[in-house]
Amino acid sequence: MNANLQHRPATASDLGDVVAFPQNLDELFFCYPKAIWPLNVGQLAAAIAERRESTVVELDGKVAGFANFYQWQHGEFCALGNLMVAPWARSQGVAQYLVEVMEKIARERYKAPLMKVSCFNANAGGLLLYARLGYQAVGIVERRAPDGSRVALVQLEKALP
Prior knowledge:
By secondary structure, the chain is an alpha+beta fold. The protein is 29% helix and 37% strand. The chain has a domain at 5-113: Gcn5-related N-acetyltransferase (GNAT) (Aminopeptidase). Strands 1-2-3-4-5-7-6 form a 7-stranded mixed beta sheet, sandwiched between helices.
C-alpha cells in the first residue's frame, strides 16, 4: 500500500480537480452513468448532494481519487459509487485504498455487513480491481451506453468482516 495516501471528506474546493478525472465519455459513463460529457462542477455537486460520504484520496497532497455511497441502508449494506481516479495517479494503489476506506466507513458508520458495487462489462480495470478485493458477481443487468448500444452492468457484493 502506498504510504503517501491519505483520505478526507470531499469539499467544494475539490470539485474542480475531480471533474477533470474522467478522460473521455467512456470513463465518465463507468463512474457516473447519468452524467453528461464533459463532467462539470454542477453535475458533480448535484450527485454529492443526493449521496453520502463523498470522500477524496490525496496522493502526495494532491487530490487523486473520489468516491461515495449512492445507496445506504443502516445495518444492511452500502453501495459504492462515483469511484474515479486522477489520470496521473492511476496504477499507484489509489482505487484499492479508496475502496478499503469506503468499506471501513460502511462498517463503522452504517454497521453495514455488505458492500455492493456495480461495474460495466467494458471496465476491465474496475472488474479486475473488485475481483482482487474479494467482490463476487451476483447479477448482470442490461443497460444502455450513451450511444444506445447494449451493455452489461455487473453487480458485485462483498461481505464486510
